[in-house]
Specification:
The protein contains 5 helices and 47 strands. It has about 850 residues and is mostly beta strands. Strand 36 and strand 37 form a beta hairpin. It starts with 8 loop residues before the first helix and ends with a strand.
């Protein structure tokens, strides 16, 4: 049993600062810094100034070590922003899908609302979202960017309580907050300071989707503001699963109080959402495993392995013990968030404190596919051979010669030519808790040198219960039917569709503590040249209590072949503790060629600490999970005029010390240790040749290769060094035209996006090819007066077959048919909004 001391930094800080403020209120003075904008005065992503392009005055706070914002065009790092309306026009399928507007990030959201794989250019993730942090008002949702079956974005939903979004790739955040060296997406909540505002919205669309949104915010008394908003939604999805694909709600509230030269915002958010999680399905392929199109009888754009007959399962976890699975719970979230965002100038010190508390339950109830389909006849042949090799079964009943396959619903025997497959019914429950706090003090201590001193603390935990494996035999069709199989000697191969036991049981508890101290200096060397430097020293301690497992039969019946060799918890535990230290550095600078033209350069030396799952992987060995080292070099230009804007950069990234695991269909785990090297270009911008028309564009090119592999890969017999980084396209781009037509009654805006995703490989070995694909999205918004809005949007209107993932449960590839995960087919949504 571990004892944790109360997390007191935030409450002590706020109490002390309140006393200092009261004592100094009479003589406190304002000493604004040139070219900076206080975050207390920024309630929108865009601040308009007369005679200057509006975009040029856009203010960002993410990545700034100071207690204030700075103009986006002046920020010496790559950062993308989106207003509330721009977020809606992007029509993201999920929080992670919004990353599609960020150059250098590729988000695989083909799994649904949750559980994405998010790849950052030059960061060899190989799945999950190790190099991505989601922030709310500058505080990380969870200090670890990814745990198995849980990433930051899965704990967050988009709604009308969001004022705007800021996303940076690399940049100064390598020394700030949780020290994310990759991508950080920061959502800024509305506070009500912009005036009284309210809305109701109803949306409906493909898959019988229904969503209801509401928001209200404004002034409640002098110096006090509040907001409340959220949504409820339900839908059956583009992939019809015969039961709700998404079903849940989110509610968010804020309370803001203006202080003398500062403000404090309290926010709370509750999320209860169930989201079906989709994995690979059968896709036809060439003899060499290159995808070609639909597998017979299975539409890759709308098909699903879920259905009424594959929704509920009861798996045997030990003699006399079971676990119920409801696939409708999917990869959902029941999460509660509370935070305090404090900013104030005290005796010429700009003080910022960001506290965030999160607690909840993150479940996974989902199918994870493995081997490709085969005929029922071939399955029976293999089952008979396997049963006759089981000495216990042969001793009890002799050898089998034939078998019978029947549907579990009693509808009769299965045709021998019917294509069937196995999919694992996996159950994961993660009870999580996190407290993070970042405290910063900034002041110009030496002329033209503004120093920032700060600390970041985190105390977080996860209590995990896993039952992986549990293979289910079913037809290889949409809304499949489970299959029972018995042999003529009485052996039971499949019972209620389940033909395999728990392959990997796990009951582990983890706690982590992070302590980081950082210092930064911004030097205004000349009126044109600004330099900055930051240094961070971080200590992380992880304690893991790992459940021991054994292998055995669930019961004593030698003919119950479906539950033999099960992985079972013993009720005993082992403890593992690992402490790591790392230092991060950022050096950057910006040079103004003109008021709205800026050159910048940056060097980062960052790190990624081992996560809970890395510690588990080293249990029982003398090895320790390595600290990943990341070096990033970037040079860029930013230019904004009324006619155009351009943000572009070139980069080089070096990685060392990466450890990655892959769970195969036979429940074994393969571990990889390697590094990488990448060169590339990021770009985004817009062209505005005439009033009310804009052509926006964004994208990236990268050439990333693996390094550091020792020896040869047993799967290929060759080295993986020099292979293209898995899942990452060498080139991707987006082109978004929009045109607004003013009318006597309001306006009409038409917009669309053409997206191109280049060829990728799903695996480290570069054996599983994912061809390039393109999509077309479009929308139209009609604003009637200042009260009504009508919006119609469509995604993947060209109904393209784009694959984002191959078969991560196998090594190499297969011939004629593969398992892969396609993007969703065409979807249409219409909404009506009433504002008041």
């Amino acid at each position: 049993m571990q004892v944790h001391r109360p997390f007191l930094l935030s409450s002590i800080t706020l109490a002390v600062l309140s006393l200092i403020n009261q004592a100094s209120a009479a003589d406190a003075s304002v000493n604004p810094t040139a070219n900076a904008i206080s975050t207390n005065d920024v309630s929108s992503a865009v601040v308009a100034t007369d005679n200057k392009p509006t975009e040029a005055q856009q203010v960002v706070v993410t990545g700034s070590a100071l207690g204030r914002g700075l103009r986006k065009v002046d920020a010496p790092y790559s950062i993308t922003t989106a207003t509330e309306e721009q977020i809606k026009e992007a029509a993201p399928l999920s929080t992670a899908d919004l990353f599609k507007i960020v150059p250098g990030v590729y988000a695989e959201t083909s799994g649904g609302q949750t559980g994405p794989n998010i790849e950052v250019a030059g960061f060899p993730g190989g799945g999950d979202a190790n190099y991505v942090t989601i922030q709310l008002n500058g505080a990380p949702i969870f200090p670890a960017p990814t745990l198995s079956f849980m990433d930051n974005s899965s704990m967050f939903r988009l709604d009308d309580t969001i004022d705007h979004m800021e996303a940076l790739v690399s940049g100064p955040n390598t020394v700030l907050s949780n020290g994310q060296p990759g991508a950080t997406m920061n959502f800024i909540l509305k506070t009500g300071e912009g005036g009284d505002e309210g809305l109701f919205r109803t949306s409906f669309g493909t898959g019988n989707s229904r969503r209801y949104d509401a928001y209200y915010g404004g002034k409640i008394s002098e110096g006090w503001f509040a907001t409340i908003g959220g949504f409820y939604r339900t839908d059956n999805g583009v992939r019809d699963s015969q039961f709700p694909t998404d079903d849940g709600y989110q509610l968010t509230g804020t309370l803001t109080h203006l202080l003398d030269d500062g403000k404090v915002t309290l926010y709370a958010r509750t999320l209860n959402d169930k989201n079906l999680f989709f994995t690979a399905i059968p896709v036809s392929a060439t003899a060499s495993g290159v995808p070609t199109g639909a597998f017979p009888g299975f539409n890759p754009l709308t098909g699903s392995l879920y259905g009424n007959e594959t929704r509920f399962f009861m798996i045997q976890t030990a003699p006399g013990q079971t676990q119920n699975i409801d696939m409708a719970n999917g990869r959902g979230a029941d999460v509660h968030t509370f935070g305090i965002d404090f900013n104030q100038k005290v005796h010429d010190w700009e003080v910022s404190n960001k506290l965030n508390y999160v607690a909840g339950d993150m479940q996974t109830n989902a199918f994870f596919t493995g081997s490709v389909p085969q005929t029922m006849s071939n399955y029976l042949t293999s089952a008979i051979s396997k049963a006759n090799g089981n000495s216990g079964a042969v001793t009890a009943a002799g050898k089998a010669t034939t078998g019978l396959a029947t549907y579990t619903d009693g509808s009769g025997a299965v045709d021998p030519n019917q294509q069937v497959l196995d999919a694992g019914a996996w159950y994961v429950d993660k009870k999580i808790k996190s407290v993070t706090d970042e405290l910063k003090f900034s002041k110009e201590l030496i002329k033209d040198h503004t120093f920032t001193f700060g600390a970041f603390l985190a105390d977080y935990s996860s209590d995990d219960l896993w039952y992986l494996g549990n293979s289910v035999l079913m037809t290889a069709t949409t809304n499949p039917k489970p299959i029972n199989v018995t042999l003529n000697n009485g052996a039971v191969i499949s019972n209620n569709g389940i033909d395999g036991p728990v392959g990997y049981a796990q009951h582990d508890s983890y706690t982590g503590q992070k302590t980081a101290l950082f210092i930064a200096d911004q030097w205004k060397a000349t009126s044109q040249l600004t330099l900055d430097a930051g240094l961070r020293y971080e200590t992380q301690k992880v304690n893991a209590t790992l459940g021991n497992i054994t292998s055995g039969n669930i019961d004593n019946n030698p003919l119950h072949l479906y539950n033999q060799g099960a992985s079972m918890l013993t009720g005993t535990y082992q403890s593992v503790t690992q402490t790591d230290h790392a230092t991060s550095l950022t050096l950057g600078g910006g040079y103004k060629l003109a008021s709205n033209v800026n050159l910048y350069a940056r060097f980062n030396s960052g790190h990624l600490m081992p996560q809970f799952d890395d510690i588990r992987g080293d249990a029982g060995s003398s090895a320790t999970a390595p600290v990943q080292g990341i070096k990033t070099y970037e040079f860029g230009i930013k230019a904004v005029t009324s006619e155009y804007s351009i943000y572009a950069s070139i980069f080089h990234k070096d990685f060392t010390g990466i450890q990655q695991s892959q769970i195969l269909s036979n429940n074994s785990t393969v571990w990889y240790n390697y590094g990488s090297r990448t060169n590339g270009v990021l770009f985004e911008g817009a062209w505005r040749p005439f009033t009310n028309f804009q052509l926006a564009f964004s994208g990236d090119y990268e050439d990333g290769k693996y390094t550091g592999f020792q020896g040869v890969d047993s799967a290929t017999g060759t080295s993986d060094n020099g292979n293209q980084l898995q899942r990452q396209p060498k080139f991707q781009s987006r082109l978004t035209p929009s045109y607004r037509v003013p009318t006597s009654w309001g306006s009409i805006k038409m917009y669309g996006t053409y997206s191109y995703i280049g060829k990728r490989y799903s695996d480290i070995q570069n054996q599983q090819v994912l061809p390039s694909y393109n999509t077309l999205d479009a929308g139209i918004l009609a604003v009637v007066g200042d009260k009504l809005e009508f919006r119609l949007t469509g995604t993947n209107l060209n109904n393209t077959l784009g694959l984002t993932e191959g078969d991560s449960r196998v090594l190499g590839t297969t011939s004629g048919v593969i398992m892969a995960r396609p993007i969703f087919g065409r979807a249409i949504e219409a909404s009506v909004t009433y504002r008041f």
